[in-house]
Specification:
The protein is mainly alpha-helical. It has one domain: Rhopdopsin 7-helix transmembrane proteins (Up-down Bundle), CATH 1.20.1070.10. It contains twelve helices and three strands. Helix 1 packs parallel to helix 10, helix 1 packs across helix 11 and helix 8 packs antiparallel against helix 9. It is globular.
Length: 329
């Protein structure tokens, strides 16, 4: 369609998760709780890693960066969804819609690469323990962290470049609680076959490739542990099973939604919630809070905080010196 023959829509209407007022009130309370839990839990992990010098290693640096990504991934759309629950209609400006698409793919693409980098770190630590310090040095760790952000940005720019330039002249109803790329593309006033193929080659291929790399790395780690020690096999199996569960919950919906962009399924909303909300709660629990080093550092941080709160006010009044320094000093 010639650009001179249409006027671009100014906003999109989001249908949300449900049209039932009772369910919307329930979701308002539920997602408020989930979002606050995600933000506080992941920020606690970041603070813990920063505060404990013993955790300044590649594995924990990448874990803390994963927590940062989880906060961003939960924030790009969830606060607006919570804000919109009491209101009808739920609208979003065209620019805001494009921003949601861009941010989603920056953070989701970055998280995919970060999970692969973390699996590579565990592979080196378990399969090549004598060379771990040489292979996974601070320089390579920094490169993997920065690289995951760069890949996320490049991946997102490749998506938004063709989406923002599509002719949107109506309809403007998006059957979701955020601007999902697969749904927004279908609203363009032109043939969307080519953009959907590009999305399949970009997001779909990236999701499938990252997921397969993760599964292969986990299988290699399990085989290595099994050959070396049958006693350690049970612990490794338990840990990697938990990791695979979280990875499947994150990658499964992404692959299902973006690897089959030509069809819209009723379960897409539920899958989107899993990949952008629930996995952000499970990541800290599975990857971090089960770790003895992190739990020990959190205990030290809590002990320092309690000591500060219980410090007698009389010491301050009389100018007495004290040495309750934060644990990172």
């Amino acid at each position: 369609m010639d650009e001179g023959n249409y006027s671009r829509v100014a906003e999109f209407v989001l249908l949300g998760l449900s049209s039932s007022w009772e369910l919307q009130h329930f979701f308002f309370v539920l997602f408020n709780f989930l979002y606050i839990t995600i933000v506080l839990g992941n920020l606690l992990i970041v603070l813990t890693v920063i505060s404990e010098p013993a955790l300044h290693t590649p594995m924990y640096i990448m874990l803390s960066n994963l927590s940062v990504l989880d906060v961003f991934l939960a924030t790009y759309a969830t606060p607006k969804m919570i804000h919109d629950f009491p209101y009808e209609p739920k609208t979003i400006y065209f620019e805001g819609c494009m921003a949601q698409i861009f941010l989603l793919h920056v953070f989701a693409g970055g998280e995919m690469v970060r999970l692969v980098a973390m699996a590579y770190d565990r592979y080196v630590a378990i399969c090549k323990p004598l060379h771990y310090g040489t292979i996974m040095n601070l320089c390579k760790c920094t490169g993997l962290v920065v690289g995951s952000w760069v890949v996320g940005v490049v991946h997102s720019l490749s998506q938004i470049a063709f989406t923002a330039n599509l002719p949107f002249c109506g309809p403007n109803i998006v059957d979701s609680y955020y601007c999902d790329l697969t749904l927004v593309i279908k609203l363009a006033c032109t043939d969307t076959y080519a953009p959907e193929v590009l999305m399949l080659l970009d997001s779909g291929l990236m999701g499938v490739t990252s997921f397969l790399l993760l599964l292969i790395s986990y299988m290699v780690i399990l085989l290595t542990v099994w050959r070396r020690s049958s006693a350690g096999m049970a612990k490794a199996r338990s840990t990697l099973t938990a990791h695979i569960t979280v990875v499947t919950l994150f990658f499964g919906p992404c692959i299902f939604i973006y690897a089959w962009p030509f069809s819209n399924f009723p379960v897409d909303k539920i899958l989107s919630v899993f990949s952008t909300v629930f996995t952000q709660i499970l990541n800290p629990i599975i990857y971090t809070l089960r770790n003895k080093g992190v739990k020990s550092a959190m205990y030290k941080l809590k002990k320092w905080y309690v000591s500060c709160r219980l410090l007698p006010q009389s010491m301050k009044k009389h100018g007495l010196a004290f040495s309750l320094q934060p644990p990172w000093f």
